[in-house]
Amino acid sequence: MSNSLSNSEVEEKSALTPASPEVIDYAADYADFILSSPTSYHAADQGAQLLTESGFTEVDRKGEWPTAAGRYFLVEDGALVAWVQDPRSHGFAITATHSDSPALKLKPIPQRTTADGWGQLMVEVYGGPLNNAWLDRELQVAGAVVDWDGNRRLIHTGPIAFIPQLAPHLDRGVNAEGVKLDPQRHMQPVWTIGEERDVMAVIADLAGFDSAADIAASELFLVPTQAPEVFGVDNQFFAAGRQDNLSSSFAGFHALTKLVAELNEDEALPRIPVLAMFDHEEIGSGTPTGARGPLLEEVLERISLALGLDGDARAQALATSTLLSADAAHSVNPGYEDKHGPETRPVMGKGPALKMDADQSYATSLGGVATWRKACRDAGVPTQVFVSHSSMRAGSTVGPLLATRLGIETVDVGIPILSMHSTREISHVVDPVYLSSAIRAFWLG
């Protein structure tokens, strides 16, 4: 299998540059989405706003399911599922992403004061971050709080904390031996000095509560506040945290809203387009809103029942369905070229990568490869192949989990990025636009 599409017509048709108006517009909207999505809760909320503006109606999972044709979505904490319901469509074309990223999670007892008067926020590590990337960054507290009546509110504080790195004068071997961080000792952010403050009182005030006693429950994270930025001599590069995997999630929202904007009322899509954004991928997906949970399966079943599909008809619809799992991929790093195989070397700016693995850490099937290549051909999008170095184990995505639950044709893809799991991941400005176009073509096909 070649490393990229060899069809010269496709490559010529897809020649986006950083100066292309659609690339500039996309980067601005993508930056706004990331900046407004410091946690999975916020990402789901931002996605809901984009969908509502495009004529989608929110569905309450606890209520009756809509039976009429239409555009719908539901939100469960940091997860979101959206679809275009149409009795003329048969089967499902599902794009799956995730909303969470590595972070520092505030503990139930959230703070302490040292003997020297430093106020620290007490955190545990969520997911697998590059710990050193969190040093000397302005951090904010962000997440969700719930009052005693069960009402949820989203908050973010702005920059209030940081994790100071030890000066090299006090650690003479740091440059030769590397930074060694104990999460309990070295990863607890500083937020005050001298005067003691109650962090939950600050959170309560932001949420509009009278006091911290009004908060019945919370899930809060420490996340960097630095805004996304396009940079480089030709504005090639896009820097931001949480691109793994908001790069795929925003591409999905962008593709879906563009799809419905261009769809005629009397036009039926071959299959029902579904966008499923899950939470908790970075910690194994084993939650009700993660890919191991029943959320997507339940939505597909209720859509089928709403369209009058029962028993064998529902099974047939699922058997004709396809899953496109979209998650960030590893670009070749010029300082560590030996970490990739000599033939498979995805590079930023050359299109999203088709992700494959012999041990099925990526769930790309034979039919899935053909589906992805067809979508790229139809969209005029270049694509590459990512296969891990043979001496290294690949990462994974929601793809294998959903493929196992649903038993449908699956393909894993994603844009290549550098510094994955850092607080400042780097992508190329054209690749997310390519990904959005390919997802849209996947739904149209």
Description:
The structure is a single chain. With 445 residues, the chain is α/β, with parallel strands linked by helices. It has two domains: 8-101 and 241-444, Aminopeptidase (3-Layer(aba) Sandwich); 103-224, Aminopeptidase i, Domain 2, CATH 2.30.250.10. 29% of the residues lie in helices and 25% in strands. It is built from twelve helices and 20 strands. It has helices at 8-13, 21-35, 40-53, 174-177, 183-186, 199-207, 243-262, 295-306, 312-319, 366-379, 399-406, 430-444, and strands spanning 57-58, 70-76, 79-85, 92-98, 103-113, 118-126, 139-147, 152-156, 190-193, 215-224, 229-231, 237-240, 272-278, 322-326, 329-330, 353-356, 384-387, 409-414, 416-417, 425-428. The strands form four sheets. It has a nine-stranded mixed sheet with strand order 1-2-3-13-4-14-18-16-17, sandwiched between helices. A six-stranded antiparallel sheet has the order 8-7-10-5-6-9, sandwiched between helices. A three-stranded antiparallel sheet has the order 11-12-20, with helices on one face. A hairpin with a 5-residue loop joins strand 11 and strand 12. Helix 10 (366-379) crosses helix 12 (430-444). It is globular and about 70 Å long. Residues 1-12 have low confidence and may be disordered.
Comma- or semicolon-separated keywords:
single chain, about 450 residues, alpha/beta, Aminopeptidase, Aminopeptidase i, Domain 2, nine-stranded mixed sheet, six-stranded antiparallel sheet, 20 strands, about 25% strand, globular, disordered N terminus
List the helices and strands and how they pair.
Layout: H1 8-13, H2 21-35, H3 40-53, E1 57-58, E2 70-76, E3 79-85, E4 92-98, E5 103-113, E6 118-126, E7 139-147, E8 152-156, H4 174-177, H5 183-186, E9 190-193, H6 199-207, E10 215-224, E11 229-231, E12 237-240, H7 243-262, E13 272-278, H8 295-306, H9 312-319, E14 322-326, E15 329-330, E16 353-356, H10 366-379, E17 384-387, H11 399-406, E18 409-414, E19 416-417, E20 425-428, H12 430-444
Parallel strand pairs: 1-2, 4-13, 4-14, 14-18, 15-19, 16-17
Antiparallel strand pairs: 2-3, 3-13, 5-6, 5-10, 6-9, 7-8, 7-10, 11-12, 12-20, 16-18
Helix pairs in contact: 3-7, 7-12, 10-12
